[in-house]
Amino acid sequence: MLTGRQEKLLKLIVENYIKTVKPVSSKALSSKLKCSSATIRNEMAALENFGFIEKTHTSSGRVPSDLGYRYYVDNIMVPRELNGEDMLKLKQIFSNNALVLSDAINKSMEIVSELTNYTAIVLGSSSNDNRIAKIEVVPIADNKMIAIIITDKGHVENRNVSIPNNVSKAEVKQTIDIISKLIVGVPLNEVSSVLEFEVKPVIDRYVKEHEALYNAFYSAFSDFTPKPNMKMSGTTNLLMSPEFDDASKIRKILNKFEDKEMIKHIKEDDDEIKIYIGSENNIDDDISVIKTYFYKDGEEGTIALIGPKRMEYDKAEALLNFIKENIGNE
Amino acid sequence: MLTGRQEKLLKLIVENYIKTVKPVSSKALSSKLKCSSATIRNEMAALENFGFIEKTHTSSGRVPSDLGYRYYVDNIMVPRELNGEDMLKLKQIFSNNALVLSDAINKSMEIVSELTNYTAIVLGSSSNDNRIAKIEVVPIADNKMIAIIITDKGHVENRNVSIPNNVSKAEVKQTIDIISKLIVGVPLNEVSSVLEFEVKPVIDRYVKEHEALYNAFYSAFSDFTPKPNMKMSGTTNLLMSPEFDDASKIRKILNKFEDKEMIKHIKEDDDEIKIYIGSENNIDDDISVIKTYFYKDGEEGTIALIGPKRMEYDKAEALLNFIKENIGNE
DNA sequence: AATTAGCACTTCTATTCCATGAATGCTATT
DNA sequence: AATAGCATTCATGGAATAGAAGTGCTAATT
């Protein structure tokens, strides 16, 4: 276990490094820890033995290790109060009633990325307990219609439907009625199978041009499984940090960001706010990720902030926490 | 005017530089231009006098200048045939009837960014001649509704509406009916003023809680002026080019990409495919932009490719051209 | 008159060497 | 247990150097 002084020293090293991005020397801290640099060097040696700090070369100052950040986050850091101005900006977004929840989340994370200079990610989807509440079909040309699907949680999606030439308006209406009757109340992820096993037989039986019509609507309606959609804000913020000072490092991260797989790495299913430092996250050893899960009104997803390992964990946590509270849970 | 040989030489320099990203030496071309390096040096001096090529330092090989690229694009480059495989990939997207036009365009430009390794941008919006075809309002909670607006061109938008507590269902229905009756057929950009000057008086007259209800719907419907929306694909592709080999250059471009103003720079209103080389574009001197305008079925916008100045202009043009043809015009 | 061979000259690039400074670890002292 | 003092290590930046890759120009050649 760390002594009080060691803990204090680790705190100083972490916070100093977060601020300056330069290895911290014993001399620089001697005034703050009212003892000599030699004493600090001894304590530093101890912290290094524990694996909490590292040297970049034999005679360099110390830099927090992943483990050091971890200890800092878990045992030293005190939750930060959100500054009033920032709070106001975010509050305004959530109090705007015209905004759909997902838009409010996206907008607020955009603000957060500006406030922190980190990269914000919202990974959201309408959850599986969205059920179809209504289907509306609007003709827009002779053989073209727009099908609109509305869920009971207020999700709206629309698709093109091309109507084959040889079918009558009456048949189209008949088909829509059948689909509508059978599909209202069905959860999104079951739409496809309900169409196939319940709707198709009925259409086959009662509608003349059943094959062509069923296919037209099936291709429009079949892919309603909630698809996760990811929004990033301030993508480049992270790359402006001085530790990403050469092209290859920047490119490495940019490649990760473009990678379709990243979506999986970001996903979080724990309700608490989690912090993944350096090697703890699956994206890149040089960054940290702080994220949390949300669920509200049939929308679920993950919000995350990606920053350098020397991110201001306390501030990041306070911001995510505030947004989480504003989303509210159900 | 350039002699035949000078033109040939410029072509070789440009194409060589595009391929190798290294200044082109006289020696390297002597075999291809069946004459000695000394002769080529003389011709190079002439081309440099015209301003078509440049040296990076006194004893370096030559690099095309913006003017040189311009001459190449205008007078030397021959339109490229699209390769069959690429063509097929793109064709498939446009032949998928379930896709809305704007989605097809987005998807195809995504492919293009992969095929070229440049950054693709789609800047689109539903044009002003979209008229409201139908309004649908679906309740999803006691005091919450989803308003859905469908245009005659098949555009769909939806908004939240919060219903004040003290109004009856009948009143809500009455309000919706009034709005619906007066607003169908109105072009999107006039919705706001029609609401204010035609709908409001009627609601004021016939609906009891007119103020609260009008406000609720107005805030949902008022911002229907077609808002341009921008989609970028392969944002990082451009930055992988070897000419962007240091952090500050990459950051410079990334900053441009994040800049909200960029949307204005990309916008194009000429129907032809236009190429803006280096200083000719308003984004950055180190890049080139090739773009064109499209209009179809009430959707309009710009598609653009951003690449290094040494982009394969012929290929880029062929791709944009192909997509333009597939969008079709009206 | 156009082309070419030949050569001096310029600049970039990579390497080495060196001096400096900022740290450290360790030992001896308080 | 804390500190002063000192040798040691390594990063950093500048200067010097050698080599390579080009060019421009002149004089010879076609």
Walk me through what this model shows.
The structure is a homodimer of 330-residue chains. In chain A, helix 1 packs across helix 4 (66-76), helix 5 packs antiparallel against helix 6 and helix 8 (191-206) packs antiparallel against helix 9. Chain A has 330 residues and is an alpha+beta fold. In chain A, 45% of the residues lie in helices and 21% in strands. In chain A, the strands form three sheets. A five-stranded antiparallel β-sheet of chain A has the order 7-3-10-9-8. Chain A has a three-stranded antiparallel β-sheet with strand order 4-5-6, with helices on one face. Chain A has a two-stranded antiparallel ribbon with strand order 1-2. Chain A is elongated, with a radius of gyration of 27 Å. Chain A binds a DNA duplex (30 and 30 nucleotides) through residues 23, 25-27, 35-39, 41-42, 44-45, 55-61.
